Amino acid sequence: MSPHTLHDRRSLAMHQLIAERIRSNPGLLEGPRARVAEWQRSQTMNPKYPRLWAQLLNGPLEELIHVLLDPGEEATELRHVSPFAGILDTDTRDRIYREVKGQLEAEGRLAPAR
Fold first, then answer.
1. Within a domain: residue 12?
2. For residues 29 and 81, is the Cβ–Cβ distance under 8 A?
3. Is-contact 27 38, C-beta < 8 A?
């Protein structure tokens, strides 16, 4: 298994939890909206990502949730440049990292750590 697969599975798991939290509290979108606006002002990355995130963050909630949960290639690429930093605390991220790694090891898709 490539390290990218591990990263992508961890990212998807984290964004699944982020989606749940946003559904319960749409006010959580204010931080990501501000972050994307700053990305647009600073022009420090490919403008495609801030543009797409801005559309999603300011559009229908269900479209955003769909992208956060979509395991497809385009959504995976977009999650590589995620504006949702800070929604999950360090302990939660660490737990997700361990759980995903354990799942992949159990599936035989990742060699257990020695």
1. yes
2. no
3. no
Tell me, yes or no, whether 36 lies in a domain: yes
What count of residues does the chain have?
114
Per the CB < 8 A criterion, the answer to whether 15 and 70 are in contact is no
Whole-number Å distance between alpha carbons of 78 and 100: 20
| Total count of domains within the chain | 1
Q: What is the DSSP letter of 95?
A: H
Tokens of 41: 């002002």
**Rounded distance between C-alpha atoms, residue 62 and residue 103, angstroms:** 28
With beta carbons less than 8 A apart as the criterion, state whether 30 and 82 touch. Answer: no
- Tens-digit pLDDT profile for residues 48-65: 999 999 999 999 999 999
- The residue segments making up the domain with residue 37 are 3-106
